[in-house]
Amino acid sequence: MLWEVGTPWTVEEIELDPPRQSEVRVELLAAGMCHTDDHYVTGDMAWPLPMIGGHEGAGVVVEVGPGGRRLAVGDHVILNYMPICGECPSCQRGRSRLCDRGAAMGTGLQISDGTARHHARGQDLHILCCIGTFARQTVVHEDSCVVYDADIRPEVACLLSCGVVTGWGSSARAAGIGPGDTIAIVGCGGLGSSAVQGARLAGARHIVAIDPVAFKREKAQDFGATHTAASLAEALPLITDLTRGRMCEAVVMTMGVGDGTLVADAMAVTAKCGRVVVTNAHPERETSINVSLADLTIMEKQLVGSVFGGANARADIPMLLDLYRDGQLDLDSLVTRTYPLEDVNVGYADMHAGKNIRGVLVM
Ligand SMILES: NC(=O)c1ccc[n+]([C@@H]2O[C@H](COP(=O)([O-])OP(=O)(O)OC[C@H]3O[C@@H](n4cnc5c(N)ncnc54)[C@H](O)[C@@H]3O)[C@@H](O)[C@H]2O)c1
Ligand SMILES: [Zn+2]
Ligand SMILES: [Zn+2]
Fold first, then answer.
1. What is the mean pLDDT of residues 74-94?
2. Going by CA atoms, what residue is nearest to atom 9 of ligand 1?
3. Fewest CB atoms within 10 A around its CB: which of 12, 172, 238, 328?
4. What stretches of the chain show up as alpha helix (H) in DSSP?
5. Are 142 and 70 a contacting pair, CB within 8 Å?
């Protein structure tokens, strides 16, 4: 739980109410430690506190509330960080990552009736992204669940809640990369490593992985990067040389904390009609970026945002797990270390120290 900005996560007993209308109680097996949770600790992003963190998780349904339509006790579920109603205009247009149910998400309360199922120290608790996976059990709406086959290890299944799909999709969907293209991935943690694999699967010719940490650059090569650089500035002459000055069809930004002063550098390695995809989260207080908009007009360059990598959970999660089973997508190597729930702060310290592609809490 996070009680105040700037304080460590606490691990303590909570009270959990039974599921109400269309809700389920889930026993979590594993939860991934995405960088996004840390933005609420640093204050770069805000969520109502106190809250149970975590928005990557896989578990088993242990109780179904009244009116539940889609799930049964014993179902293995990946908890999706955006609920999907399937019926709103966004869902109907194939953009379930932008489901209108998301409008109620920021309250940190249940989307069914706006109340809390989680309580501690005599107070209602908020949950991150309608799920709050840094817990042994949680109660969520059935719309937050995607069923998966129980033979997949929970340590890797949980990464499909966010990091893997968002990273893969940033290359394959949001950037629209294709065979023969050149792509640069800026920041090679959990998302960037998956973006490298997305580019490889899409047939990119040159995949330039950019990260200041040598371990991340080495791992990126295992995931399919053809070249590496420690910074965008270092990548500029490399990409110029590789492409005879035509530069990258796409540049995917997956740094730990987005930095508006680097957007011009990203545009500089982008080709005519190329696309810079902003997947990393920028601090909410950052409202200006450094870029010449002439790049957009004269060169038809594009600067676009992406949530969940432009992917759709109920279609893309099963598809990516099939690619994992076939040996085409490496999920095992994304999990650098596992931790017990009590060591969540150690896991985030290791993330900051550049030791992990992904740290995973095993319940
Ligand atoms: N848009 C979305 O839907 C979505 C979903 C999940 C996460 N995110 C965001 O994506 C970002 C990445 O998340 P993650 O979990 O992969 O983080 P991470 O900490 O695992 O990886 C970030 C990487 O960026 C590298 N880095 C830091 N500064 C850099 C720089 N100047 N140039 C190049 N690389 C640099 C770090 O060394 C690290 O390897 C975070 O901002 C996170 O909040 C967005
Ligand atoms: Zn995430
Ligand atoms: Zn919807």
1. 97
2. 280
3. 12
4. 35-42, 89-92, 154-157, 163-169, 190-201, 214-223, 232-242, 263-268, 294-299, 313-325, 344-352
5. yes
Which DSSP letter does residue 2 get? B
Q: What percent of the chain has pLDDT over 90?
A: 99
> What is the 113 CA–ligand 3 centroid distance (Å)?
17
Give the burial class of 18: count Cβ atoms within 10 A of its Cβ; 0-12 exposed, 13-18 middle, 19 or more buried.
exposed
Q: What percentage of the chain carries pLDDT values higher than 70?
A: 100
Q: Name residue, tokens 């371990």.
A: 215
Residue among 207, 194, 201 nearest 235 (CA): 207
State the burial class of residue 57 (Cβ atoms within 10 Å of its Cβ: 0-12, 13-18, 19+).
Answer: buried
Q: Is 326 helix (H, G, I), strand (E, B) or coil?
A: coil
* pLDDT attached to residue 92: 97
Q: Over range 171-198, report the average pLDDT.
A: 98
Q: How far apart are CA 149 and CA 314, in angstroms?
A: 13
Residue nearest to atom 20 of ligand 1 (CA): 189
- Token reading at 125: 């608790």
Closest CA relative to residue 183, chosen from 266, 123, 255, 262: 266
Of the listed ligands, the closest to the CA of 92 is: 3
10, 48, 50, 58 from 128: Cα distances, Å: 15, 9, 10, 15
Please give the pLDDT value at position 254: 98
Counting atoms of ligand 1 from 1, which one is nearest the CA of 163? Answer: 6
Prediction pTM value = 0.98
